[in-house]
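Worked problem 6 (solution included).
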Amino acid sequence: MVASLLVSLWVQSSSAAEVTRRVLIQGPTIVAFAPPSVETATDEGAAEAIAHLQFALDDVSKCASSKHVKIKVVFVYADAIEMRDSGTTRALAVNRLGQGIGGVLVAPGRQAHVVASREGPSMLQELLPEAVSAYWGIEACHGAVR
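Solution. The predicted structure is:
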């Protein structure tokens, strides 16, 4: 399988209220994120938001696999993400991005590209594959909405 789903690498909290996740970047990676409150939420809206993000990640997996590109997927419930590669650490407050759900496309030595839901998590099914197409040059992901 091209993409693998991991549920957080290690946890670091900057305060009792804010959750920060640290992710080690060793190759092409999508850091999918959602608010910590969604992780334990039982309402239908939270479940649908996570489902839409997962659908978008599945679409990326399918289109990337057609070109045999390995993209690691790390899923975190966080307010902030610290991404580390080759001694460089990049911090991103994802709770301030759109609705707090989306993905960060990143690779060692490259500027990260953020895709955040602004009009609803269902838009990620269009936005995420398009961003993957542009960021990694995977033409098969262009227009990959299912």
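Discussion: The chain has a mean pLDDT of 84.
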